[in-house]
Design a protein that fits this description.
alpha+beta, 22 strands, 7-stranded mixed sheet, Elastase, domain 1, about 25% strand, 11 helices, Nuclear Transport Factor 2, Chain: A, 9-stranded mixed sheet
Length: about 525
């Protein structure tokens, strides 16, 4: 790797129930590698046992399990995440997690929204597909380039219902692409929920100084040591893969936006840091845990003031006047973490789950920034501190006191949190992460002063951000489902802390006190 002139940036980006396993349930376990490595083989091995697992769990007739993800602890404990179909229809929100020991004995089953049974007596719709498609196009609010729909089972909060999932693709007025999934009751036509595959963010660029980046033979911005992470130039376009950056001497960019390579270096560096953080800290082999890298596309659109993850790749705009590329360290960390959430818990982008999804990206974007240990863009608990999106030097979000953003972010969970935009309902979990890491009170870190108080008036010390991040990663990958809420997050995080550090440990108590400190509903888990 050669030295490269670069400058780095920042990004912006329901209820699970735990029930006892069937008495004596013992699910034969295929040999799996530790830490989830060789993930495709682990998933394939578990999929071969899926029919037996469904029978052992007592799932209803017509329900079929599909393995999504496998996590295995060093002691042989396994967490296998499944999606479901019913009579050939996809079950949206039918995901579940099976925890079992090394002998294959089930100790816990987590059903999304407590939906053990997802079958229906009839899968015949009243609403026509054409009517559903028209509703989807209207809901999207932009000119559709594609619009398709299929019948699904949608697990609502009260019960599973027959629904149409309409997927409407197009481009919004601000140039952001959209792949909007709208769910309509197949009998009444009511809109049940919507979720966009494209998760957007806001940022700036050129803050990381001179850095080392991984390049390939022929001087290409392709990092074969990190699964083939690569960076391309869209040259103002809004579609396609872009053109892979190449160079004559392996010295890239000059630190100025006028040099097209500079944004490419920043994006490539951010992808590199994100890969290294997840692998070296959490044992995750790439975003999808299969050893495959991701593409970063820069120079998207015209003066596009945003960045987004679209389900498979990162894309960065050039900002106002095409002079401020949104290509910072936490842009990559935040947006690519949407991919990790997608590959694991699959948190929906609405309700409490939307806030948990967004905060997860803030948490790991922050951790990637601290992990980078970059002298020019030091780690902090400020989201978007480099972008000056407000025009007065203030950050986009504050983890120590989210309400300081003045936009409606909450410090404390309420019953109305689920009704907020995910960027604001993320506030309580961001606050939890700061409290679990640093505790209450005033302190200065890397030159930034913070003051945080709990919502319940308690004072306590934190367990450190590395502990808080490991607890949250385990919660995300082994405890949460697509519609998990703040109550499930609290239960899952305390359980994860006990598994990692032991009941009654200082780490577990810090996690528990921090969740109580944001007024998250208490469940059955306690240190």
């Amino acid at each position: 790797m050669k030295r490269a002139t670069s400058v780095g940036a920042i990004a912006v980006i329901a209820a699970a129930a735990m029930v006892a396993a069937p008495a004596g349930a013992n699910l034969a376990s295929a040999p799996l590698p530790a830490s989830g490595f060789n993930q495709p083989a682990a998933v394939q091995a578990e999929q071969a046992l899926a029919a037996n697992t469904a029978a052992a769990l007592g799932l209803g007739k017509g329900e079929v399990l599909k393995v999504k993800d496998v996590v295995k602890d060093a002691d042989g404990t396994e967490f296998v995440r499944y999606d479901r179909t019913f009579n050939g229809l996809k079950v949206v929100g039918g995901d579940l997690i099976v925890k079992r020991d090394s002998a294959g004995t089930v100790s816990q089953i987590t059903y999304n929204r407590n939906a053990k049974a997802v079958g229906l007596t009839s899968t015949k719709p009243t609403l026509s597909q054409a009517a559903a498609l028209a509703k989807g196009a209207k809901t999207a609010g932009f000119k559709a380039t594609a619009n398709k729909g299929d019948l699904v089972i949608y697990v609502a909060e009260s019960k599973p219902v027959l629904a149409y999932e309409v997927v409407t693709s197009g481009v919004k007025a601000d140039q952001t692409p959209s792949v909007l999934h709208s769910f309509f009751d197949a009998k009444t036509g009511a809109l049940l929920d919507s979720d966009d595959e494209v998760k957007t963010g806001t940022g700036n660029s050129m803050y990381a100084g001179q850095v080392s980046i991984g390049t390939a033979a022929g001087f290409q911005l392709k990092d074969n040591a990190r699964g083939g992470n690569n960076t391309t130039d869209l040259n103002g376009g809004t579609s396609g893969t872009g053109t892979l950056f190449t160079d004559a001497d392996d010295v890239w960019g000059n630190g100025l936006a006028s040099n097209r390579q500079t944004a490419g270096v920043d994006a490539h560096y951010g992808g590199q840091l994100t890969w290294d953080y997840y692998k070296n800290v959490h044992g995750r082999n790439g975003i999808f845990n299969n050893g495959t890298g991701a593409r970063s596309r820069v120079h998207y659109g015209n003066a596009y003031v945003n960045a987004f993850w679209d389900g498979s790749q990162m894309t960065y705009g050039d900002g106002q006047g095409n002079t401020k590329p949104l290509t910072a360290i936490d842009v990559a960390g935040h947006e690519m973490s949407h991919g990790v959430t997608q590959a694991t818990a699959g948190l929906a982008y609405s309700g409490d789950a939307g806030g948990l999804n967004e905060a997860t990206s803030d948490i790991f974007g922050t951790m990637v920034e601290f992990y980078a240990n970059n002298a020019t863009d030091k780690g902090d608990y400020l989201i978007g501190e480099k972008i000056n999106i407000n025009g007065n030097g203030t950050p986009l979000r504050y983890m120590d006191k989210p309400s300081k953003d003045g936009r409606g972010s909450q410090d404390c969970w309420t019953t109305g949190t689920k009704n907020l935009d995910p960027h604001y309902s993320s506030g309580p979990l961001n606050h939890w992460f700061y409290l679990a890491s640093e505790g209450t009170g005033t302190k200065t870190i890397n030159g930034v002063s913070y003051t945080s108080t709990s919502c319940n008036g308690t004072t306590f010390v934190g367990a450190g951000r590395d502990v808080a991040a490991k607890v949250w990663y385990r919660t995300l990958t082994t405890k949460l489902s697509s519609n998990s809420n703040y109550a499930a997050a609290r239960n899952g995080a305390i359980t994860s802390a006990k598994e990692l550090y032991g009941a009654g440990s200082a780490q577990c108590l810090a996690v528990q006190r921090a969740f109580a400190g944001i007024n998250a509903p208490a469940g059955t888990a306690a240190c």
